Each structure stands twice: as structure tokens, then as C-alpha cells.
From TrEMBL:
It comes from Limnobacter thiooxidans. The lineage of its organism: Bacteria, Pseudomonadati, Pseudomonadota, Betaproteobacteria, Burkholderiales. One of its GO terms (molecular function) is pyridoxal phosphate binding. The keyword Iron does not apply. The gene is vioA. This is dTDP-4-amino-4,6-dideoxy-D-glucose aminotransferase VioA. The modification N6-(pyridoxal phosphate)lysine is found at K185. Gene3D superfamilies: Type I PLP-dependent aspartate aminotransferase-like (Major domain).
Length: 372
């Protein structure tokens, strides 16, 4: 490898010259935030692109997730996955809710619906699944369970921008879906987030909550927070939206090459993408199993030595962290699949400008290590 460092993900950035007119317009309008014109344009454009009825933009995905829980007035216990980024469960603690961890499916690494019903108690009010790596949870079965027990469903869709299943956006599943528009995501606004909802009344409540609860200059409707997206971030989103299809296409070419070159490497397994899913190539995780001669962590370190920065997403498990490990549902014996995944999964670099020859070099290193 040369001296360049190859990271697991990088933002796809359009030419700087194209951003200058947006900056000039913000300067001329003297509107920097508070539901400005670019903010309104981006909400409308994203609704059209994603095929969703309503979307509320936020300063980041974590505040969006916290607000989604508040908007639905969730209380008590929430069933969720231990295999995710920490903000999934942190958003529950910030709302004084108790996470109840349920194991993941060993094949999809998504919340296993077969384990949900046994975790439901009289205190359960909602289910918070994650579309892990952008691959859809079993939304049909989760909705069936929610309907039977009268539960709300909020999807952490941080990885799932633009993903469809059977031709329909998975962002329309459940009561709410929450996107991250962070710089490392498939589509980004540098920093940002969004809530997708199905009706105007819910959208209005969310908009109140993200602006301190203000309905007008003198009327505060709810104990809101400052979650607004700035005009600068919204402008970046409008520009990025012009390039997102091209970025996704490049990601999918990269993951296709990974799949081809790693197909016969002993001890390396790949996460399957269902035939009915239009994926976004958000991540490329592999399982380093017992047939590989070195551990996942040793392979991670070897790649680092070559300037290749993969990620052990998600290690350690949320349920293993100090603020969670004392919960009864965090007992490792109840979460065997999640613990195995946390020990085996390595996400390899994937971003639109990753050269295919670099993908090939990464695969050569992995293949050589497999031969001892």
C-alpha cells in the first residue's frame, strides 16, 4: 500500500465552487436558521426523493431520536437492540426510559422478532429497532407484535437513507423513523438528522418540540429542545442530494468487488442482502470466523499497519457498557448472537471515492493473512 490512509467511510463532497452560490444566498437573505428557505426546500426535496409524506429536519440524528420518543410520549420500558451505536440507547436514558435488550438474528444482525414477545411486560410502551447497516428489520412481524400489544414502533434508520424493500421505502414503517445525516452517512448535511412521520398533526408536534416548544412568539406548547437545522447545513443537503444517486451507485460497485474478491477467502463470511431490498451500500461488514487463522482484532490491527482503518461496528455491545450492563436484559447469556457478532464483525472501508484498485489491495491483505 502507499502512504494514503483508507478509512471505513468518508463523506462524498461536491465541488466547492458549487457551494459558493448557496453561501451567497444565505448571506443575502440574512436568514441563518429557524426554518429558513433552504430548510423548507430540503424538507420538500427529501420527501419527494425518499417517498415519504412528512419529514422534519434536525441538527443531528441523536437529538432527532430523543425528540421522536418525546413526540410519542413514550414511557416505561422500550425494547431495543444491544447491537448498535450508543445513541440508540442513550436517547432512551435521556428520556428517563429503561432499555430492554433483546438478542439479534444471527444472519441479519437485526433485532430478532422471535425474542421480542417474551421481553414484553406491563411497563413496555415501545419497540426501538435499528436497520443495521441499512438492511431492513422484519418490519411486518414487528408491526404485528406492536399491534397485538398496543406498542409504538420507532425505527432507528440512521443507516437506511434511500433503502427500499419490495419497491417501498422502509422509512414509512412504524410510527416514526429517524435518520442520521452525519458526515459519514450515505447522504449528509455535515451534521444533521431527520424524523419521518405519516401525518401533519405529528409533524406539527415534532416541529414544536425541536424549537423549544414554541407555537408562536408568546405561546409554548411543550417542553421542547433546540434541535433545528441551520441554513448552512440545509444548503449542503440540497447540494448533496444532486449527487446522492451517483454516490450510492459507486458504493454498490465497491461492495460488489469486495464480494467477488473475498468470496473464496476461508474464514471470511459476508452479510447477505435480500433480493427484494434496494440497498444503499452504507457499510461493508464481514464476519471473521473460527476458520480464519487470526482473530478479528488481529486482522483489524494488521489492516491498521497498512494504513487501512476499518471499524469494529459494533464493539463493545451497548449492553456491555457501564451504564447498561447492570440491567437484567444485559445479561450476556440472553444475548449470545449479539456478543458473537461484536467479536467477529469488521466493517471494511467503503465510500464513493474509494478506488477499486485500493479495494483489491485490501482484499489481497485479507487473503494473505488467511494463508497464515
Amino acid at each position: 500500500m502507499d502512504n494514503r490512509k483508507i478509512y471505513v467511510t468518508q463523506p462524498a463532497l461536491p465541488p466547492l465552487a458549487e457551494f459558493i452560490p448557496y453561501l451567497q444566498e444565505i448571506w443575502n437573505s440574512k436568514t441563518l436558521t429557524n426554518n429558513g428557505p433552504y430548510h423548507q426546500q430540503l424538507e420538500k426535496a427529501l420527501c419527494e426523493y425518499l417517498g415519504v409524506p412528512h419529514i422534519a429536519l434536525f441538527c443531528n440524528g441523536t437529538i432527532a431520536l430523543m425528540t421522536a420518543l418525546k413526540a410519542l410520549r413514550i414511557q416505561g420500558e422500550v425494547i431495543t437492540t444491544p447491537y448498535s451505536f450508543v445513541c440508540t440507547s442513550h436517547s432512551l436514558l435521556w428520556n428517563d426510559l429503561q432499555p430492554v435488550f433483546v438478542d439479534v438474528d444471527p444472519v441479519t444482525l437485526n433485532l430478532d422478532p422471535r425474542r421480542i414477545e417474551e421481553a414484553i411486560t406491563p411497563q413496555t410502551s415501545a419497540i426501538l429497532p435499528v436497520h443495521c447497516y441499512g438492511l431492513p428489520v422484519n418490519t411486518v412481524e414487528i408491526q404485528r407484535i406492536a399491534d397485538v400489544y398496543g406498542l409504538k414502533v420507532i425505527y432507528d434508520a440512521a443507516h437506511a437513507f434511500g433503502v427500499k424493500q419490495k419497491g417501498e421505502s422502509i422509512l414509512n414503517a412504524g410510527d416514526l423513523s429517524v435518520l442520521s445525516l452525519h458526515a459519514t452517512k450515505v447522504f449528509n448535511t455535515f451534521e444533521g438528522g431527520a424524523i419521518i412521520c405519516q401525518d401533519e398533526k405529528t409533524k406539527q408536534r415534532i416541529d414544536y418540540l425541536k424549537n423549544f416548544g414554541f407555537a408562536d412568539e408568546v405561546t409554548v406548547m411543550a417542553p421542547g429542545i433546540n434541535g433545528k437545522m441551520s441554513e448552512l447545513n440545509a444548503a449542503m443537503g440540497l447540494l448533496q442530494l444532486k449527487y446522492v444517486d451517483e454516490a450510492i451507485e459507486k458504493r454498490l460497485r465497491i461492495q460488489a468487488l469486495y464480494r467477488e474478491l473475498l468470496a473464496d477467502v476461508r474464514g471470511i463470511e459476508q452479510l447477505a442482502v435480500p433480493d427484494d431490498v434496494e440497498w444503499n451500500g452504507a457499510y461493508f461488514p464481514v464476519f471473521v470466523n473460527g476458520h480464519y487463522p487470526i482473530s478479528r482484532d488481529a486482522l483489524y490491527a494488521r489492516l491498521q499497519e497498512h494504513g487501512i482503518h476499518g471499524r469494529r461496528y459494533f464493539f463493545p455491545l451497548i449492553s456491555s457498557m457501564p451504564m447498561y450492563r447492570g440491567l437484567p436484559s444485559a445479561n450476556p447469556r440472553k444475548l449470545p448472537n449479539a456478543h458473537q457478532a461484536a467479536e467477529k464483525v469488521l466493517c471494511l472501508p467503503i465510500f464513493p471515492d474509494l478506488a477499486l484498485e485500493d479495494v483489491a489491495k485490501i482484499c489481497v491483505i485479507i487473503d494473505e493473512a488467511s494463508r497464515g
